[in-house]
Amino acid sequence: MAHLIGGENLHLEYPTKTVFDAVSIGIDQGDRIGIVGRNGDGKSTLMRLLAGRIDPDGGRVTVRSGTTVGMLDQADTLDPNQTVGHAVVGDVPDHVWASDAKVRDVISGLVSDVDWDTDISELSGGQRRRVALAGLLAQDWDVIFLDEPTNHLDVDGITWLAQHLNNRWSKNSGALVVVTHDRWFLDAVCTDTWEVHDRKVEPFEGGYAAYVLQRVERDRQNAVIEQKRQNLMRKELAWLRRGAPARTSKPKFRIDAANQLISDVPPPRDSVSLSRMAVSRLGKDVVDIEDVSVSFEGGNATTHVLKDVTWLIAPGERTGILGVNGAGKSTLLGLVTGAVSPTSGRVKRGKTVKISTLTQQLAELDDVANDRVSDVVASKKTSYVTEGKEMSPTQLLERLGFTSAQLKTPVKDLSGGQKRRLQLLMILLDEPNVLILDEPSNDLDTDMLAAMEDLLDTWPGTLLVVSHDRYLLERVTDQQYAVINGQFRHLPGGVEEYLKLSASSSSGSAAGSAGASNPLAAGSSSGSDDAAASASEPTLSGAEARAAQKELGAVERKLQKLTKEAAALDETMAAADPSDFEGLGTLAAQKSELQEQMDELEMRWLELGEALE
Fold first, then answer.
1. Fold designation for 534-612
2. Which of 66, 188, 193, 381 has the fewest Cβ atoms nearer than 10 Å?
3. φ and ψ at 306, to 5 degrees?
4. Using CA atoms, how far apart are residues 140 and 126, in angstroms rounded to an integer?
5. pTM for the complete prediction?
6. Structural domain spans, the chain
7. Which CATH class is domain 287-505?
8. How many helices (H) and strands (E) does the chain have?
9. What pLDDT, in 10s, does the model give residues 332-352?
10. Could you give the CA distance from residue 116 to residue 84 in angstroms, rounded to a whole number?
């Protein structure tokens, strides 16, 4: 495989921080690389260095002659005075780009709902982001850099983007480098992972799941080495401290060796583990939404957002809610909190219910923007009891990953991820028993997301999550529902079932969408929602029921067999040589293939079970 881009002995520093020191890294044809690491450690900076957007203070970046490089920045770089069509395809005539299957795929996948002649200045932030991504993907590039491409994309859009990138190049051509907190997306498109930390870049083979496996093994080995180091340090320090006269008579090389051991100990990473917070008592009744419809009057028309929704929320329920942007998810949550009144139907809340919402707007921090972080937390309580121990606000914040210097920082000067962590802490300290998370993964890195998920695992209250982050939804919720065409539907098959329903719904309504506003917006109708619903609930005859029951038994036996094979493979991976990355990659690929088979069988099991009910 040809070498496309290389970075040699890269050094970059700012007045208060060294970002990279003697980093050497390269991108070859066929590479699909995901970059992970804590916020602020340099993920986007590394990408900008390799893309030629910024120059290193030391070292050099080389690009193979003739290699074309495209990049999607986090910041909005579109000209507000140009139209959507010009931003996507430029001055290329319609008949030219319309004959290109790749360009048609990009337009239909990202901007089919956006008016082709609208000025960029009139679009929302999410629409501008999708237009910028479409404009990049509509062109031919040898190397594509994507900085948080899944921002403002719903589950359908993220799934489409993964499929597009997987099909964009042949196996050993092109190169992709992506920074994202979406771990499902990383696993779906990446074959290699770079971890940026402590001024260096550490490569791992495989996607996010393989990276986690290798990182755990690396940390285990480091822990063994560190334990040996600490034991030796204790012996040396005890020897050094046996009285002043004894120290003066010790050989100098022994003293130097002990001091070297101490100075060589690396600083620990921020601890972001959170303890389970006290939760107000929650009664048997939480929130009952019965036969509720919500409509809004606008001009001369009435918009029906929700229709005949029934949702009886139980204590300790953990529910994920899916739906395209504008489907009515926020309206549904407004019914739960009381911010939205139903047009018809009934909403009943339990007497002991105490609801808190983690919003996308960070509104909880507006009134304390000029206060120091430590003062904000201290204003609520002077001490907190966690795991049976009393902790000061400063100690609790340090466990959230804030350094001593950051505790004195005004809230307005925090990064997006730090504000998100502080926002979550402030909400939990109010001790709610129903917690609503509206896109909680925004601005958080993968490590902080894992820590938040660990916290939510142990949180005993009722949890309602709205998110386009598929990994987080499947990780922290026990069941998923979807808002589709105003209806609230249970998803026994999870996100996969939602994607199928969404595809069916969009194909059925495509002909009624704004066909004139976009050259590729119109499509053929596949039938009404009622027809689709009836098709998904077939009535089985006696013979068909017996055949389905027989197949169900076969599926269960196959699942049991694959489960045993997966467990045996896990044991093999655990016993494998951690330095054998090629072998671990092969095992990880086998595990992924097994998991795909199991997922398909589980979906079939669910379909058969529903048909037999």
1. Helix Hairpins (1.10.287)
2. 66
3. -125, 145
4. 24
5. 0.67
6. 212-263, 287-505, 534-612
7. alpha beta
8. 21, 20
9. 999 999 999 999 999 998 888
10. 5
